[in-house]
Every structure is written in structure tokens, then in C-alpha cells.
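User: Sequence in, structure out. Go.
Assistant: Echoing your sequence, followed by the C-alpha cells.
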Amino acid sequence: MRVSRGWVAYMKIAFATNRGGLDDYIAERFGRAMTFTIVDVDPSTGRVEGVRVVENPGYRAGSGAGVLAVQKLIDEGVEVVVGPSPGPNAYIALQQSGVRVYSVLGTTVREALERVLKELGSHSSV
């Protein structure tokens, strides 16, 4: 789902994070990440147009954390998810929803965003 502000449609990319923000590190677990950092990007330029941090409902869930996380991201209109590999149920839900998954660990959101934008063919200006 592209978010349109004026005449430009932005791509929403979500990163599994601990505290959130561009300088936070990617969380070690997808479904149990405390937060998701959602970045709005102009796909034609790679320019970051907005950054939000949302709480992951799966963080405190007794079971089904990954699926709860996926539902939150779908509700947020996310097109790309970046973080550790999701569990099998979460991965299937992401695939069925048309959300692309990039497995990245050990880096900041800012660094991971640059990598993903290069792979997607956008010019990065993070």
C-alpha cells in the first residue's frame, strides 16, 4: 500500500527494533521485537520522508507473537519488512499479504535501510 502525500506515493518499510528510530539496532527476534520503526520512503529518490515508531503487539503475547506482529504491520500498510527471519507462520502471513521480507541482523536501521534501498533499486538519501 503506497501512502500518497500530494502527488508522491511513499513506500512503507518496517524494521523490527528494540527502542525504535533510525539509529536503533535491528532486534534479534521478529515476533518479540519491542517496536517496529516504520520509514516512509520516496521510491524514486530513496529519500526518507517520515519515521514513526509503533509498539509491537506480539512483544508481550503468550503465543502467536509473529502473527500478531504481521497483523499490525499489515494494518500500518507496510510493503517491506526488515529484520531477523520471521517464524514460519509469520512468514506465510507476510507472503500471503504481498509483503517483501529482507533478513538483516547486527546493523542499525539506517544501515539496513541503505542496503534494502540499493536492492530495491532506489537511490538512498538516509
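User: And one key feature?
Assistant: The mean pLDDT is 91.
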